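Pasting two entries for a bug report.
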Amino acid sequence: MSNSRLENSIKNMFSGVAAKVILLLLNFVVRTVFIRTLGNDYLGVNGLYSNILGMLSLAELGFGTAMVYNMYRPLAEKNDKKLAALLQLYRKVYIAIGSVVLAVGLALVPFLDSLIKDQPDVEHLTLYYVMYLGNSVLSYWFWGYRCSILTADQKEYIRTNIRAGLSALKAVAQIVVLVCLHNFTVYLIIQLGTTLLENVIAARKAEKMYTAFRVEEVEELTSDERKQIAKDVKSLAVTRVGHVALHSTDSIIISSLIGVAWVGLLSNYQLIVETITGVLCLFTGAITSSLGNYFAEKSRDEGATLFRRVEFVNFWMYGLCSIALIVLLDPFICLWLGADYCLDFPVTAVIVLNFFVQGYMNVLWTFRSAMGLFSQGWYRSLIVAAINLVLSLLLGSRWGVFGVLIATFIANAAARIWFDPLIIHKYGFGCSVKGYYLSCMSRVVQVVCIMLTILAIRPLILRDEITVVNFVILVCVTAVIAIVSFYILNFKRDEFGYMKDTGWRVIRKLRSRHV
């Protein structure tokens, strides 16, 4: 990768990490105040409505991903007329998507009661739902499309910085409202205002940076370009439907089958897991645009080598974090909120399992997107979604929350975990995938062995009571054993050498910028 691309990737990653750390701390404070002032029932409603809106987001059908991919070339060629044409198309489609989300969302209002088993003692449920819906629609209607050019040009850190600053202000305002007023309505109004303000500021920033927004004569998209965009969107639409059905239905099913209070308990775990996922996704997200240019310039063999290296780094980031989560998550929740908010260990284990699988799939999708492999195996997402829905209902009725969550893993294992690597190697690199499968299986065994070793030690450290002191000791023991084991088992690998050398290059570059 070129120096400018590397520098932008570093900016995207480090600004994102800093923002995520800030938001993590703020979210914990807000969540703690939320639970203390409003209770678990409101927390469950918050989780349920967020997932319903996640379902409605499938109206976007992957259009944004296709548009960002099609912006790579005109940005590289500085073709403002072509960029302007793409942005105009993007604007029209996003206005239409927002309208569809609003219409479908309002049509669901009469059916909300059927999604909540054991109605909680919460007034104005319909009003709160409409406010969540409005927050989603604002993202489509008010200039959200303009920020796509920042993503395509590897300047996502600009929006990340804006989001971090506004999120800090939002958190402070919401804490004040919760403590002083105990009012969920004002809490949501602040959320709505922040979403609108973020879109406006980021859109204005993008407009100032790119002359494409000021082009008077727009170059029309050719018939072939429109057909290609339509083809990509068609393939991505199926993937999008499958993704939403896989990841945004759990809370809805849990609420309707088991109770909305369980959604609140689960959301505390998901807050931690999703925050860590967001930080780790910055690694792949920061290099996505660079990969698009890389595969246009390099041979298949060079691409395959880069994939193995990036995938190795990603695998071990999620592996180490999975080890930490399964060991530390329950004790942390107990310290943070109390034993009443802890889930059974099998539920925690499957939460971590899904976290690991999703992280593994994330880098595969990043490479598929960079290589434009949208249409290959398009039907697979529908199969995954169907398996997940059927098994969630069956296993959820039998095993509760654990059954719903394990259904997600089974669906992924049946049609995704093995399939995406096959697509990348067959259509992207033109080589066999067998070696990759064997390498992954050996690393999974390593992760499991390290995990079981630390879990065996955990009772000796925590003993009969979880305190801040023995929790800190457990964190240190977990980190030392996991990192040292990882080093011993992998220091001779080419991928490990690449990871180490790249890390030192980044550190030296950052040091040189501050000298």
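Entry 2 (this is the one that rendered wrong in the viewer):
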Amino acid sequence: MQKTETAKTWRATLYLRLSREDGDKEESNSITGQRNLLRDFLKRHTDIQEYAVKIDDGWSGSSFERPSFKEMMEDVKAGRTDCIIVKDLSRFGRNYLDAGEYIEKIFPFMGVRFIAVNDNYDSCREKNASDDLIVPFKNLINEAYCRDISVKIRSQLEIKRKNGQFLGSFAAYGYCKDKRDKNRLVVDEYAAGVVRQIFAWKIEGLSPLDIANRLNAEGILSPLEYKRSLGMKCYTPLQTNIKASWSAASVIRLLKNPLYIGTLVQGRMTTPSFKVHKQIEKAENEWAVVENNHEAIISKKDYDTVQKVLALDTRRSPDAASVSLFSGMVFCGDCGASIISKPVSVGGKRYRYYICSANKQDRSCSPHRIRAEELEDIVLHLLQKHISAVADLDELLSAADTAPLRTAEAIKVQRRLDEKKADYEKQQRLLMSLYENLTDGVIDRAEYARLKQSFSERAAEAERQMDSLQERLSAVRTQTADMSWTENFKRYRNLSELDRSAVVSLIDRIMVYEDKTVEVVFRWQDEFAWQTDIVCRSQMREAV
């Protein structure tokens, strides 16, 4: 009797994919639509039984690094499934090379039947002569579609960033998304209060670790835990504990974020192409930066002060709660090296001296020193004197009529700028006439080359001077009118004792020379000198 051959029954995995990135938003491509179509296909093919359904919802087809696709391939390797069915080739993937690799090499090698229903492709069906051309061509078209959509989305996102629309999944700590406009940031008053306190502590001299410890001790939730407490589903790969807590790193990130002064910085990271999803950092000049984009939590003055403090050498002794008063701000006036604090014991008493670090390291500078108490007294006296001078200057400028001086200065600079523009245009005309003189035989080639170089150099020099004068004109029109910097000094008008906050807020650096002469370079020194000159000229004009 002849033995009857049993027909093979295939164990099929229905693979469904829907992308929110490459434009797959048509109703026919919905997960439900794909599932219904594939199950209707199974009803017509009794030799195929459904084993599993794998869904990658929200994953782009440009890469095969998808969780459910990987699970499906593990089932294939384990022999649990031997047939993969998709709606069409674009649902399987939009990467031309990788899709072709799976369909033409990997699946045949592993004995997997691959079916793309709408493209009428079945790897077990006898191939037509056109299959070897049509399938790769469709994969190529799918990849081109993905590339085109990727370019369009990148362009749209870049426009939104430049317009100041916030595109992040979650707002930074201190802000929340506007309920009426998810692309706009509004202040979260509770978290904003914590941010202000962190900046204040840093200006007072606390280290980031001390700030983090204080926040944790007071039971203030970290940014991640605070978001979770509001019902947000967020996570970070940086988290190592079950409950995220404040750390020195999280405090530093917060202190360096320009978002708190109203500046929105986006587009720092990108991917090389729609195929490669590895994040790379863009050049800083390519970032999308929009100033005054939203309400600031921290003033520009305090933010700049903190950035200055973070850049200083702010080491502290283990038994101190904060950094020393002048940490990172004192320098040798003779060699420029930093001056460091050194404790000295004399007769059972401990004294602190400031000494040149260059002398301590390699004796390249003289061994001069100054007692800490003496330096503090000198700096306090100079600072009190400067604060008084700034307050007097502010009052004089308020009383003096400096408008005519500003107008006269602006007219003078504008006149010089017009002269340079005329000179530049003259050199350009001479350059244009040179070639005509050469062709007419008025000058030879050697004379042409010499004159061309001469006129080009004069034009370039005139252009540089024009740029300089334009900057000066802008300064005349803006700096004289801006006296807000004086408020930084006036709020310390009753200063009787130095503290870290006053030092870092008002002083740029302190220079100590070998003869114990102390020079204090104050912040906004240029503005002070410029405004003083305005007052002096105004008084001279009135005296005349």
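Dev reply: Rendering is fixed now. As a check, the viewer should reflect this: The mean pLDDT is 81.
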